[in-house]
Amino acid sequence: MPAELRGLTVHIDTGRWSGTVLDSIDLVVPDGKVTALLGESGCGKSMAAAALTGSLPASARSTGQVRIDGEPVRGRRQWQRLRGGTVGLLPQEGVTAFRAEETVGAQLRALEERYRCWSVDDACAAARYPAESVDLYPDQHSGGQIQRAALAAALLPRPRVLVADEPTASLDTETAYGVWAALRRYAGAGAAVLVITHDVPMLTAAKIADQVALMRAGKIVATGGLAALAALDDPYVRGFFQPSGH
Ligand SMILES: Nc1ncnc2c1ncn2[C@@H]1O[C@H](COP(=O)(O)OP(=O)(O)OP(=O)(O)O)[C@@H](O)[C@H]1O
């Protein structure tokens, strides 16, 4: 089930600050593939993830379209039907995927019960979430543990579109590779997967992304295969693939 942003512009007005954070973005996340979204800090990657999953902040106003399976999504009600089951989000701060007052295990079991798609054990194994942590409360986890718990939570309904915002940010290389491989397998089973990451060395070493979109200042500035992007003679693009400037 492909997910798309078409001419999407997002303007934020918090009362204290206002500005355009996404500027006429076109982005296609196709079925069966891993798309990686890269870009400098603050360029709008999480905002693009929020737009694709119907979770923009209340201070946001958008124009343009979000399409899921080719159909424009209109309004809050339609997003309520799509979120979780059809369109899943692993948020950048995994802890926000959970309620503070219940253990992670109880919340994962509730998702298993609600969607009846996948077992907690299988989702935790796929997300590399350690089973011995399930009886802990969300705030008793390390940053890397809660991110993997949130990935298990996002995977449990087996959404056909999965957006993962920095799933490997706090992980050691081996665990990060396991998570990337799990995302690859999940896309291989047919899902449209978008992964936001700063982990370009892993991306290039493991060759897990089928396509890459590169953002700068609220715009998509380049899209294509990893090798094609890495070969571009543009200083901003080169900065991602050759951080030393060589
Ligand atoms: N909830 C919010 N309310 C208002 N503005 C926000 C909110 N979240 C993000 N922004 C603003 O939107 C812009 C894009 O932020 P975003 O989080 O999408 O960046 P990012 O590319 O994901 O950065 P990073 O790599 O550091 O996570 C920034 O200027 C940020 O200040």
UniProtKB/TrEMBL annotation:
InterPro entries from the UniProt entry: AAA+_ATPase, ABC_Ni/Peptide_Import, ABC_transporter-like_ATP-bd, P-loop_NTPase
Domain ABC transporter: from-to ranges: 5-242
Keyword field contains Translocase: yes
One cellular component term from this protein's GO annotations in UniProt: plasma membrane
A Pfam family the protein falls into: ABC_tran
Main location: membrane
Gene3D superfamilies membership: P-loop containing nucleotide triphosphate hydrolases (3.40.50.300)
Membrane topology recorded in Swiss-Prot or TrEMBL: Peripheral membrane protein
Keywords noted in UniProt: ATP-binding, Cell inner membrane, Cell membrane, Membrane, Nucleotide-binding, Translocase, Transport
Family membership noted in the UniProt record: Belongs to the ABC transporter superfamily.
Protein name from the UniProt record: Putative D,D-dipeptide transport ATP-binding protein DdpD
Source taxonomy: Bacteria, Bacillati, Actinomycetota, Actinomycetes, Streptosporangiales
